[in-house]
Design brief:
Helix 1 runs parallel beside helix 3, helix 4 (about 90-110) runs antiparallel to helix 6 (about 125-150) and helix 7 (about 165-180) crosses helix 8. The protein has two domains: about 1-80 and about 205-210, Glutaredoxin; about 85-200, Glutathione S-transferase Yfyf (Class Pi), Chain A, domain 2. With about 220 residues, it is mainly α. It has nine helices and four strands, in the order βαβαββααααααα. It has a four-stranded mixed beta sheet, with helices on one face. It binds glutathione. Glutathione binds next to helix 1, helix 3 and helix 5.
Amino acid sequence: MKLYSYYRSSTSYRVRIALNIKELAYNIVPVNLKTGEQHQPPLTDLNPHGTLPVLLTGTTPLVQSLAIIDWIEERYPEPPLIPERDKGASDVRQLCLELYYAIATEIHAPNNLPVLNYLRNELDADDTKIAAWYAKWIGKTFAPIEQKLQSFSWRSPDLPFGQPSLFEIALIPQIYNAQRWQTDLSNYPLLTAIHAYATRLPAFIAAHPDNQPDAPEVK
Ligand SMILES: N[C@@H](CCC(=O)N[C@@H](CS)C(=O)NCC(=O)O)C(=O)O
């Protein structure tokens, strides 16, 4: 399998974590978002949206990180990324999916790079305003999730669903991004504790932006 990825792309980071949890072999094909390689062939031939990630598994390129992760989960069911997956719409399964979609869709869309660039270049927002915008969308979704996790009966002391799930696949890249924007995360102690624990697991370490072949060397 080939994963078209950029080291700092949070949507690529999600897919890298999923592939690593399943212990699947894949080669990274780096696409430089900073120089706009996503808007040129060969990437646009694979994905006319001009976004990462793209997973090549056969002849048809898979695009959209959540759809790719869905494909991975269907094709490689073990270990499951959804708790109680086989129990139908159990409350635990539904909560995991709810948190996953909330983070992956509600935070990522308004905080994606083209949106932030539009605020900066077309609406003259400065760094302070952009950071405030970023923090607003983090808070809108993180605050209720933090609250829900306080009343949820955790399956293990470190991970709410007892093992890495779709929830952490969305959460960990989102926290990485938030830290880049120096967002104050002190109101979310459970989320930051999950982040601290998950980022020490091998699947997450291997997926981390700093450990990608296109990451700049730290001098
Ligand atoms: N909903 C899409 C979003 C993809 C996306 O926006 N990816 C970003 C990187 S995190 C990207 O490629 N941005 C480049 C651009 O929009 O020019 C997904 O989940 O795959």
